[in-house]
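new request in #modeling-help
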Amino acid sequence: MNNYFKVLRPGINSTFQDLGRFGLQHLGIVASGCMDQLTFCTSNKLVGNKISEGALEFAYQGPLIELIGETVLVAISGEVNFNIIKKNGETIKGNPNESFIISNEDKIDILSTINSVYGYFSIFGGFKIEEVKGSVSTLVRAKIGPNNGDKLKVNDKIFFNKSNQTDNLKKIQYNFDKDNIIRVMKGLQADYFSKKSQKDFFSKEYKVTKLTDRMGMRLEGQKLENLVNKNIKSEGITKGSIQIPGDGQPIILLSDHPTIGGYPKIANVITADYDKLVQKTPGTIINFKLVNLSVAENAFQDYVRKF
Amino acid sequence: MLKKITNIGDCGITCDFGDEVNKSTNKEVIKLFNFIQQSVNTRKLKGILNYTPSYNKLIINFELGQIKSQEIIEFIKSSDYSKINLPENKKIIEIPICYDEEFALDIKRLETKTKLNFKEIVSKHLETNFFVYMIGFVPGQPFLGDLNKGLYHDRLDTPRVKISKGSVGIVEKFCTIYTFESPGGWNIIGRTPFELFNINKKDTSILSPGDTVKFKSISKKEFGSFKNE
């Protein structure tokens, strides 16, 4: 029997992702990968996969999918509102962050993420998707990755590796970081900005705008004054870099960032706060807190303990 | 010369070779890039995720759970990589270009600005052996230099919303080839049918930093019938 999910509604931005495609940034290929690593790994843990197994990432509204095939063990992680619609029409409210079983012709309707952006869908045994250069991450802009490098589309079929295990149900206590303080380290060109602007950046509030996607997050707040040069010689970009283009409003470069760029960077988000950052919805007010390398490295130790 | 190494956040470092953008600085960058790549491939250096050379910098990203910036900095500082025999990128790649007016969107304006005629612009572009400074922004897009001085020109005041894949553009002393349809502000002087980037091939990008590019003029007819071998 051919087992697959039929995509009845693709959702806004549903893509396959894993932990990223590495070692190719010198050829212009960004790592991509899941936006929120902890939530991504959680969905794999819930179904007993290795934590790096490819999962389906969705943003805001997720897909509506119907299982065609044998009973399977699946999970949805994040803060997500979803329903399971049984074959007989009965609708059951789904619980995220615990694995569940669905059967032939059942549907999963991922309605929305709640006060957050990204959620993940995993299946025990993993999806049957093709690796491209060692990863199943999708970079839609360059059409790299499984599903021809594209977002889910209506009528797509999502195949998965067949497995018989369906009894290993798990639940993971899931705590989102609710605070809006994002810790950052000083950026390479922080001293391009006036003393006042450097102070403003680390003390004033910034609002997440709608111009936010997997590539970057545009913020709105106190305009930052560049005293040196609005452009720099293009240099390699690191995920979480906060660049300040000519208009003085920050853009945080996220997982699908361009590989090189020519705007000065005032700060870099520390690894431990990246997952928290990417889950902030437009309109959220965030504050940056300046920390040094050893604080960032210690925060990372606390962060990995959550996995 | 490697001038300084600075942290970029907690999972990156930048190796800075000074402010000059020229071949000799860039060759230093590429030498360290080759050394890091070799060290990663031979497992002398673990936990490295990406290494991205640009005109005058090499940025190295790593997995914080596996290695810390201090260890990488010490590794680089303690290595006399300038004496190590590294595989050099010195392929010479010939790239066909069609300068037909359908493709050379900005050549008329360049004629006025540079006071050169079409033929002179083309011959100055064709006579140059271009050095591949870096690749990136989007997959496979090369940044080449140095143009003949007579062709130096600023970026467009208003970037185009859409530039076709394969378009060849110039700005200041650099030349680029758009590997994807994208917005852009470079002065477009022609187009190549040559596919520089293909994720499904073993050699994903035909060019690597350090290679040499020589353009070869083709007619519109040859453009239409061109096939990547």
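bot summary: Residues 92-225 of chain B form a domain with the Cyclophilin fold (CATH 2.40.100.10).
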